[in-house]
Each structure stands twice: as C-alpha cells, then as structure tokens.
Design a protein that fits this description.
Layout lengths: L16 E10 L2 E11 L4 E5 L6 H8 L7 E6 L2 E2 L5 H11 E4 L11 H11 L4 H14 L15 H13 L5 E5 L7 H17 L3 E5 L3 H4 L4 E6 L2 E6 L4
Helix pairs in contact: 3-4, 3-5, 4-5, 5-6
The structure holds adenosine-5'-triphosphate.
C-alpha cells in the first residue's frame, strides 16, 4: 500500500494514521478506555503517561499488532481493525517500521545483515539490499561497526542499528516503544537526534512511546494517556 504523503502538506493534510476511541481490556484489566491519536506525514507524536497507563497497548493497536475491542484505526483508505490477519501482517512488513526498547537485533547476524534483513525478507536482491542498508547505516552512524555482531556493540550502537533497520524499507510510519529506555542519556540523545532528523527530512511519521519528558521533547506533539484514556494534546516542553 502506498500513500501520498508529501511533506509540503504536513500541516493540513489528512493524518497518515488515526486511531479513535480505542478500547481494549486484558481479562478484567482495562488497558485502553477511549484512546485516540493521529499522526501526519513527517510528524513525530510522543505518547507519554505513567507506567501501566496504556502507552504500549495503544502503540500495538495503532500498528495492527493488537486488535481493540472497539474503535477504529484508519490508515489510508483502510480500517486496520477490519483487515484480516494476513493483510495486517503484510501491511506491517511493507508500510511500518519498529524500534523497541531492546533493539531486538538478530544476534547471529552482523550489523549490516541486520539492517538489510527487512529488505531481504521482502525479496530484495542481496546487492540492492546491501546498497540500501549502507545508506541507512551511514545516516545512523553505524558504518564503522558494519561487520560486528550485536553482542560486540554498545547499547547506543545497537539502538541506532535498530533505527536503521526500521527505516531501511522506507516505511510510512515508524513505531518506537521506549527506544532509549535502556540507554544512558548521551546515547539516548544521539538516537533521538538522528531519528527525529530523519523524520523531519522525510515523510516518515513517527509514533514514539516514552515516559521521559526529555525524549518526548524531540516530538512535534505530545499525547498524554492516563488510565487508558488520552487526555490532551500539547506541544512538548523543550
Ligand atoms: N498482555 C497483557 N496481559 C495482561 N495485562 C496486560 C497485558 N499487556 C498490558 N497489560 C495491562 O494493561 C495495562 C496497560 O499496559 P501497557 O503496557 O500498555 O502500559 P504502559 O503505559 O506501556 O506501561 P509501561 O510504561 O510500564 O511499559 C496495564 O495495567 C498492564 O498491566
């Protein structure tokens, strides 16, 4: 699925992705109780809130990983919540990128193989995948460790590798769940600076879950979630 998401139309354009009035419980535990969030092309939206407030659950619903019990997630012409499993999985592979708290790199593969992996899985040839991976490794400043394995690199290098991997297939939306949560502040700032620069220069929309105000400050907008309900939208405090 390809969306027209020119950066020139960021301000007024339809959101690229919009979840509205999402509800989801895990057994007796309500995780989302009326959560809404939209993100536009080239925009970074931070989801903040205390532990257990529903941030990750909201991200997972927006990304089509979890199905809400009610509410909609619009992506282009689709309601993701109405798509069959197979189509939602395909959409995640082709249109979305993911960065998690612990990079979740494949330990047996080198940095450049990890970055190229989404392209290889999508059937892109070896040479072309390496070429495109090299571009993103340079952009995320991990070229010097291209032939290292995840066990041989620092946490910050690992997260920058994970960001390069999330971006390598030119996703429309990147979902980042506490991408700096396991890093010291300097390494975290480097990851966030690079991620927000890339989003700013491109049409990539970023949904960023964080409990750290310093990380949320990199976003264009902040959505606060409390007890499963999104509270208000605000400019992040810088
Ligand atoms: N798989 C699950 N099974 C049962 N309960 C869950 C599950 N995932 C989340 N929950 C519950 O749903 C609520 C919201 O959890 P969620 O992980 O979305 O919060 P969060 O804001 O991301 O928290 P944190 O900042 O601690 O990661 C919590 O009460 C949590 O215990």
């Amino acid at each position: 699925m390809t969306l027209d998401a020119s950066p020139d139309h960021r301000e007024d354009a339809e959101p690229v992705l919009a979840g509205s009035d999402l509800h989801l419980s895990f057994g007796p535990t309500p995780a989302l109780r009326g959560a809404s969030l939209s993100v536009g092309a080239g925009e970074t939206v931070a989801v903040t809130g205390s532990s257990g407030s529903g941030k990750s659950t909201l991200l997972h619903c927006l990304a089509g990983i979890l199905m809400p019990e009610s509410g909609q997630v619009r992506y282009g012409d689709h309601d993701i919540t109405a798509l069959p499993d197979k189509q939602r999985s395909a959409l995640r592979r082709t249109d979305f990128g993911f960065v998690f708290q612990f990079g979740q790199l494949v330990p047996e593969l080198t940095v450049d193989e990890n970055v190229a992996l989404p392209l290889r899985l999508a059937g892109v040839g070896h040479k072309e995948a390496r070429r495109r991976a090299a571009h993103w490794m340079e952009r995320l400043e991990v070229t010097g460790i291209a032939d290292h394995r995840p066990g041989e690199i620092s946490g910050g290098q690992g997260q920058r590798t994970a960001v390069a991997r999330a971006l390598v297939a030119d996703p429309v939306v990147v979902f980042a769940d506490e991408p700096t949560g396991a890093l010291d502040s300097l390494a975290g700032e480097q990851v966030m600076t690079l991620l927000s620069d890339v989003a700013e220069e491109s049409t990539t929309a970023v949904v960023l879950v964080t409990h750290e105000p310093r990380v949320a400050a990199y976003a264009d907008r902040e959505v606060v979630i409390r007890d499963g309900s999104t509270q208000r939208e605000q400019e992040p405090v810088r």
